[in-house]
Amino acid sequence: MQTAIFIARRAAHSVVVLLGLSVVIFVISRILPGDPARIAAGARAPDWVVENLREQMHLNDPLPVQYVFWLGDAVQGNFGLSLVTRRNVAQDIREFFPATFELALYAGVIMAVLGIGLGAIAARHKDSWIDNLMRVISYLGVVTPSFVWAIIFLLIFGFTLGWLPTLGRLSEGVPTPPRITGLYTVDALLTGRVDVFWDALKHIVSPALALAMGSMAQQARITRAAMADNLAKDYIAAMRALGVPERLVMNKFLLKPSLIPTVSILGLDFAATMSNAFLVELIFNWPGISRYGINAMLRKDLNAIAAVILVLGVVFIVANILVDMAVAALDPRIRLSAARGE
Amino acid sequence: MRKLFPVLLILALALVLGACAQQPSPAQPAQEPAAGVPAEQPAEQVAAPAGVRVLRASFAWPTNIDPAMGSDFSSATALANLYDTLVFPNPDGSVKPWLAESWESSDDGLTWTFHLRSGVKFHDGSDLTASDVVYSMERLRTVGEGFAYLFTDVVESVSAPDDSTVVFNLSQPSGLFLPSLIRLYVLNEDLVRANTKAEGSYGENGDYGQEFLQTNDAGSGPYQVAEFPLEEYLLMERFEDWWGEFAPNAPDQFRMIAATEPATIRTLMSNQELDISDQWQPIESLEALQQIDGVKVAAFSNLTGFYFMLNNQLAPLDDLHCRRAVSYGFDYDTAVSLEWPGTTAMVGPVPKALGGHNPDVMTYPYDPDKAREELAQCQYADSIQDYPIQFVWISEVPDEEKFALLFQANMADIGIPVEIVSMPWLSVVENTSKLETSPHLVSIYVSSDLPEAGPLLKQRYHSSTAATWSQNEWLMDPELDAAIDDSLATVDQAERFAKYRAIQADLAERAPSVFVYDQVEKHAYQSYLDWPAAQGTVIPVMGYNLWAPAIGVNR
C-alpha cells in the first residue's frame, strides 16, 4: 500500500516534469535554424510541394497552436512522420529503442556487478597495493571516453583475438527471434532458441563493456569511499567487539548502507547510457535509438528529435523512481520517514 | 558479495563456453511465425543456406532507395541494382540499349520515341510496359529530388501510345537527354499505386508511395530488396527471372553495410566479413588494409573533382583578385602527394576524363609571389585581416582536414587569415542552401552524373543549382547560364564539346573555385573477387562499378 501511494505520488510529479520537458523540446525544435518543410522536401523540390508540407505540419499556425496539435498527437503515441525515413516516428522508435535498452541493460549489469565488486575489494584491502591498483584502473576508466574503449575492444576481441563479432546485433544468417520484448537475448531464451541467444550475447558483450567502463570505474570509487567511511563508524567497531564474523560485518552491515550512493548513481548512469551510446552504436553498427537520435539532430528531423528526447526523458524519470524505491528498500530511515509523510 | 561471486563465476564460464560453442546452424529456411505472434511483426530474417554467394560492401549512409529521391553514392548503387533503365552506360561513356531495344528522334530533336523489349518482369511477376515508364518519369519530375534535375527543364511530356512504345516530348533539344536516361529508374506503377497513402504532399497522388519505397523496391532489376533495417544494412537478393545476364559467379545476395569507421572496416576485411570497402577510408587505413593477406586496393578515375568552393558573393572572395591570390597561393603538388598514387591536379573547372574537357585553360600553378601580387590588387588588401576565410571541411571525410591545414598554412604565407571548421555533411547541405548561411569555402568532392563536362558545369555553376550542396559559388550569372543551357541543348557532340571548352576557358579566368585535383576512387577489396573495375573496366557513372551482376565472388 505504501509502495502504491509512493508510486502514484511520483507518477503525478512525473507528468508535470514531462509536460515541462515537452514545452522545452517543442520550443527548441521550432527555433532551430532551417525550414523543416524545405529540409524534408529537399533542396530541388518544387515550391508547391514545400507549401503542402508546411500546411500538413501546421507550420503556418502560431507556435502555441502548433504545440497543442503536437502535444495532442504525442499523447496518442503519434509523433508524426520522420522527415527522413517518411515513416511514423513511433514505428522508428519501436524498432530502435529495444536495441539500446538491451545494450544499456547489459552495460548496467556490468557496471553494477564489476563496479560494486571492485569497490568492495578495494575497501576491504584499503590502502594496500590492491587498493592502489583499483584506483589506477578507476582513473583510467573514468578519463577514457566510451568510444575509445569501443575501438580498443573491437580491435582486441574482434581483430586480434577474433573471439567476438564486430558488427550489429546478430551474425549474418542467424534468424531474428520473434518479437516479444524486442531484446534479442531475452526473446531468444523465451522462444527456446539457445543458439540465437549465444549469438546475440556475443554481439552485445563488446559494446556493453565499452559503455560500462566509465561508470563502472566511478561506481568502484564511490562504493569504496562509502565503505571506507562506514568502516570508521562506531557500529562496526561494536559488531566486531560483539564477535560477529568479519565476513558478515563486511557483506551485510557494511555493504548495504554503502550501496545507497552507488545505487543512486547507477540509476542515473543507466539512463545516461541510453542517450550517450551513439558513438559506440556507430562503431559497432548497433541500430539503436541513440544513433537514430543523433542522425535526426544532424538532419533536422524535428519530429524524430522531439520523440527521442521525450522517450529518453521518460527513461530518466522511471530510472529515478526505481532508484528512489531501491534506496528506500536499502535504508529503513528513508522508508519510515516516507511512511510518516515527512 | 559472497553470494554474487559464484554467480559471476558461472557467468564468466558461460561466456567462455559460449564463445567456443558451435555457430548457430544457419541452414534453416525462413521460419513460420510462432503461433500467437501478432500479424504486424516484420518477417523473420531469411537465413542464407550454405553455398550462397554473398557480396558485402560498406558505404556511407543514409541510403535512399526511392528512385525519385536517392542521388548519392550508396543510393545510386542500390538503385542501379534494384531497377532497370531504358539505356545502360558503357565504359567509354556512351550508352547501349537496355529496356529500350531501339529509339529514334525527330529532326528537330524535340520528340524521342523508344521501343521497349518484351518479356521484362517486375519483381512481383507483373509485366513491364510503357505506362510504367511514363509513370516513373512523371513521378520523378513531381517529387523533384534525386536525379530529377536532369529532366525538369528538358522533358515537357511523356506518353505511351502502346504497351511497348514510349514517346518523350522535350521543351528544347538536348544532347544529354539520351545519356540522362540512365537515371530514369522504371517503377512498377501498379505496385506503387497500391501502396500509396492517400495523405501526402502530392495532391491526388498522396505521398506518391514514398513511405513504401523507403524500405521496398518496385523494380525489375537484377536484385530485389530482401531486408532493409534502415540504419544497419540493405540486403538484396538475386531476382532469378531477370531478363539480363549474370556473370558466372555473380552473387546471390548483395549486402550493403552502413559502416565507414576505419577500425570496424579493418576488422571486417581481415575476417573476410567484408568484400569491398567504401571509398572514404583515410590513406593510413588503406595502407593498413593493403597489408592484410588477400586484400588489395583498387584505384580508378571516377569523374570526381575535388574543389574548394569559394563563395563569390562573400568578402573577400567577391573580388576576382582575392580569388586569384587564393588560387595561386595554394600548393597543388603537396596536395596531390597527400593523396593515393594516380591522383593528378585538376586542369580547369572539370576533371580531365570528362568528354569535352579543355586542357588549354588558364591555370594557377603554385606561386606565392604571384599570389601576393594579386592580393595587392584586391580591394580588401589593406584590411585583409578583418576578413578571415572560413574553411569548412566535411566531418565524415577526415582526410579533408589535411587539405584544410595545408590551405591555412599556404594562406598564412601570403598573409590571408583562415579559420578551419569541421561540419557534418547534412549541416553543409543545409547551410549551402541559402546565401546568408553559405560559408566562404567548402571543400567537396563532386561527381559528374554523366561522362561529359556539361552536366558537371551545370551542377557546379548554373544558377539553378546555387542553393544545393554542389555549388557554394553563387555565381548567379545569366550569361553563363545561357551558355551552359545552350551547350546542353546541342545535339551534335563535336559542337557541344566545343561549347563546353569555351565555358571552361571563361570560368578558369574567373577563378570561382580552387580546382584541386581529379580524384581516384579507392576501394580495398578481397582478391577472390572478379571485379571489372579493379581489372580496368571502369564505368564512369556513379554507382555502376558496384553493379553486382558483373562481379564474380569466388568463394
Describe the 3D structure.
The complex is a heterodimer of chains A (342) and B (555). With 342 residues, chain A is mainly alpha-helical. Helices cover 77% and strands 0% of the residues of chain A. The two termini of chain A are 17 Å apart. Chain A has 15 helices and no strands. Chain B is α+β, with helices and mostly antiparallel strands and 555 residues long. Chain B has helices spanning 4-20, 73-82, 130-143, 177-180, 189-194, 210-215, 262-270, 283-290, 320-329, 332-337, 368-376, 400-414, 425-431, 453-461, 478-489, 493-510, and strands at 54-59, 87-89, 95-97, 100-105, 111-116, 155-162, 165-170, 223-227, 233-238, 253-258, 295-310, 344-345, 389-394, 418-423, 441-447, 513-526, 529-530, 552-553. Chain B has a six-stranded mixed β-sheet with strand order 12-16-11-15-13-14. Chain B has a four-stranded mixed β-sheet with strand order 1-10-9-8, covered by helices on one side. In chain B, a hairpin with a 2-residue loop joins β6 (155-162) and β7 (165-170). Chain B starts with a helix and ends with a strand. At the A-B interface, α2, α3, α5, α7 and α9 of A face α1, α6, β10, α7 and α13 of B.
How many strands, what sense, and barrel or not for the largest sheet of chain A? Answer: none
Lateral arrangement of strands in the main beta sheet of chain B: 12-16-11-15-13-14
Mean pLDDT of chain B: 88
What is the largest interface, and how many residues per chain? A-B, 69 and 72 residues
Indicate the structural class of chain A.
mainly alpha
The description of the largest β-sheet of chain B is:
6 strands, mixed
Alpha plus pi helix count of chain A? 15
Q: Report the C-alpha radius of gyration of chain A, rounded.
A: 24 Å
In percent, how much strand structure appears in the residues of chain B? 15-25%
